[in-house]
Amino acid sequence: MQIIYTIAELRLRLASQKNIGLVTTMGNLHAGHIHLVNLAKQQSDCIVVSIFVNPLQFGVNEDLAAYPRTLDADCKKLEAAGVDIVFAPSESEVYPTPQTMTILPPAIAEELCGASRPGHFAGVATVVSKLFNIVRPDVAVFGKKDFQQLFIIRQLVSQFNLPIEIVAGETIREEDGLAMSSRNGYLNPAERLEAQRLSRALKLVVDAVKKKKLGFTEIESQTTQYLTQLGWIVDYISIRNQDTLLPASTDNQKLVALGAARLGRTRLIDNIEFDLG
Amino acid sequence: MQIIYTIAELRLRLASQKNIGLVTTMGNLHAGHIHLVNLAKQQSDCIVVSIFVNPLQFGVNEDLAAYPRTLDADCKKLEAAGVDIVFAPSESEVYPTPQTMTILPPAIAEELCGASRPGHFAGVATVVSKLFNIVRPDVAVFGKKDFQQLFIIRQLVSQFNLPIEIVAGETIREEDGLAMSSRNGYLNPAERLEAQRLSRALKLVVDAVKKKKLGFTEIESQTTQYLTQLGWIVDYISIRNQDTLLPASTDNQKLVALGAARLGRTRLIDNIEFDLG
Questions:
Q1: What residues make up the catalytic site (chains A, B) (predicted)?
Q2: Which residues of A touch B129 (CB under 8 A)?
Q3: What residues pair up with B268 in beta bridges, in sequence order?
Q4: pLDDT digits over B105-159, tens only?
Q5: ipTM > 0.95 for the complex
Q6: Across the interface, which of A102, A134, A155 has its CB nearest the CB of B161?
Q7: Which residues pair with B141 in a beta bridge?
Q8: Which CATH superfamily groups domain A2-169?
Q9: Any idea what DSSP says for residue B243?
């Protein structure tokens, strides 16, 4: 496995490479990332994993400085997973000058996670565009845990005519149901015990929707109240149309229950897709 | 020469093509466009010329509907010029769904032409991004007549890490100095006679700057007054730094005098680069 730090060297290495698979990460890798690598391997001959903590997608009061940088441990995991190239550029390699041109994401980027993280998806779409242009992958794999991000990346690819196939990886969970995330490492033991409740609450949302006794808004607000009483600060609990991410209507068959909530200083997100058969 | 109307067919044709040169146009071609084709031929083995009147870069009160569509005549000129492929997609081929994600250009896009054409450069940058992703050229040639556009395209390529070399083509002029433009065809005979005055006025600006007797702002406003008295509606006359497009300071060596002004309903633009030796 090669570790490459510069765009020029990466381009040279990939110049005549066919069938490239890309997994973009911010490092601090867990089994969820390795699952994405394995999906990429099924479709590609050369797997590139980028590790870059992208300042453009962090708000001023967010955890950019605290975000765990664990390059050596990450590289060991990626080598064991059969990755060909780790691309680990510095901030000045990706942003040699201020990024005064950005991707303006669609209106949906202002809702859900975007409502509490203004500018986040513009930062994501911009850095992913750059990485796509640097690596020129045939396939890129993104996790469903970041459901809204996946939605926006699919829009990016389709609306900008990028010749890249986007593959979605299922969310990998701890035994108690907590979705794997680099940010789980911020949780203290009591918070870690409580953290499983987010995925459980979303399961209750799904069950309630299927029972059809309560309206979507009622289910959302009752679930928010339930988590709030348990000490969570809830950003949103929302039932949405899987294909558009717009608020679900009772006509929609393919839905997704999404949630974002904070335990102490740690913000967790999760979602469950489901069908109204 | 092939004329291709769909993205799928174009991709198939270019799949194993090396060394592609692209000239993006809105059709109604003149000698200025052919000059760009000739520049592309010097560096590429396969020349693609796109012809697409991009609705996204026209304001609501602009000349989108009136813009001349002359595909047959254009193709004859391009065949004679040795072009390999004309890409002439329909509006629904380029925008099968509403373009809800766009390129947000840098602040300079709000000045000069952007001040009187809000959203114009976002539309330009977005469609050029799409065409770059569809054609994947090695070289793309843009004319210096659209100096601000060229500046923004260079920023697009550099800030989004596009592996494309941008080549700039000199402005081609009529015998009386009028910069060639598809919009010159809108001028009535009296306006056509007067139109040469824009390039002459910009030459006077350059001479005045070199003489160093008047300040830049004075030169700009005197030239604006001069054209206004002759019946022009002046959008701007501006002396700028060639490298940043910011208002020039007396320290700058490489300057450009830019102007945009209307004769009747026709908006003309022009510019002259010059050095303060």
A1: 33
A2: 160
A3: B261
A4: 999 999 999 999 999 999 999 999 999 999 999 999 999 999 999 999 999 999 9
A5: yes
A6: A134
A7: B23, B167
A8: HUPs (3.40.50.620)
A9: T
